[in-house]
Every structure is written in C-alpha cells, then in structure tokens.
Backbone:
C-alpha cells in the first residue's frame, strides 16, 4: 500500500488526527490502487507469448485470424492407440491435443488450442513483413518453433516448388495440420511447398 501512504502524507496537519476522514481517504485511494494494479497487468495479459483464452482471441481479431475452424479436423485428439476401438494412430504426449470442452468429440476439432493458435498468429504477424527469402524463413522458424525442439530444412527445387523438411522427436499433429493446410501460407507467391515430417530424430 505504498501509494496509499504517499497520498496520506499530503493531508494537511489540520486533518491528520481526523480518523473518519483518514479512513474515507484511505478507502478511496485503495480502490484507485486496485485499478492501477489491474491496468498494469493488461500489457502482459495481451502479450502474444503469454495470452490465453479470451486475450488470445482478442489478438486474433486484431491480427485477422479466428481460432474457429469451419471444417472439423479429425485425428488430432490425445489418445493411446492400444485403448481405442477401432485402433487409431497413437497421439500421445507431445503429439495429441487435449479436447476443448466446446468441441464435440465425434465431430473432431473445431477450436484450435492456445498453443497452435498462438503459432498461427505469429506466422501471420511475420508473414506481413517477410520478404520471401530462405534465410528469413529459417529465422522465422527459430522464432516460432524453437521451443518445440523442431528444426527446418529447405530445398529449392528450382522449378517453382520447394521441399521443407521438419525434424523433431515428436511433431505435434496440430502443427502438421497447420502447415499442410496452409492456414497462413508462408511462401513466395506461386511456389508450391512439399512438407516432409521426419519424426523420431532429435
């Protein structure tokens, strides 16, 4: 309550012993201090690296991409293959996504989870200033996916196509889908991208 004490020192000596007046001033200043404290958290709450839920949705409105998916994505939920019927491709730790309570399991994923949505937003931000060079693409990848432990290799086939190989011990299914479906096409105009996913490599 440092702010409270500071303002209370501005009260003239005439009222320094007026208990009710001091309590009233203290109550008023306390509410203002709470407002100041809350407002100081806003920047951090809307930082793209920290934002989740409604805050991340608000950033999506500003950037121009929604987390809602029109066509449900199947096969991305966290699951153990041995416990599914019929048997499914195992999407265990680091690969599958936890189901959002708003999603219906039978219909697949319709709302991107925070981590995948955050990556799409970062893609979009960088796309707006990307000049289309391969060195920049490597830099972009390091910014967005370095925390995932994924590495990138780009081969320009010199025929308006390029092969991009993503290597990692476990590549999340949502990342694979985002790249394959070109949610945010981070590529030069007219160039076709062939994505290759090499899992199991460090």
Residues:
């Amino acid at each position: 309550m440092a702010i409270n004490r500071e303002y209370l020192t501005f009260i003239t000596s005439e009222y320094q012993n007026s208990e009710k007046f001091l309590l009233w001033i203290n109550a008023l200043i306390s509410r203002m201090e709470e407002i100041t404290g809350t407002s100081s958290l806003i920047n951090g709450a809307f930082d793209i690296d920290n934002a989740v839920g409604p805050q991340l949705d608000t950033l999506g409105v500003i950037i121009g991409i929604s987390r809602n998916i029109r066509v449900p994505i199947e096969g991305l939920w966290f699951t153990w293959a041995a416990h599914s019927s019929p048997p499914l491709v195992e999407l265990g730790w680091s690969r599958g996504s936890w189901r959002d309570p708003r999603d219906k399991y039978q219909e697949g994923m319709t709302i991107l989870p925070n981590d995948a949505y955050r990556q799409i937003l970062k893609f979009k931000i960088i796309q707006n200033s990307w000049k289309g060079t391969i060195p920049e693409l490597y830099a972009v990848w390091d910014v967005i996916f370095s925390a995932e432990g994924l590495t990138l290799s780009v081969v320009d086939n010199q025929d308006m196509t390029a092969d991009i190989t993503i290597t990692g011990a476990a590549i999340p299914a949502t990342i694979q889908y985002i790249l394959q479906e070109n949610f945010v096409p981070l590529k030069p105009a007219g160039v076709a991208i062939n994505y290759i996913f090499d899992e199991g490599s460090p």
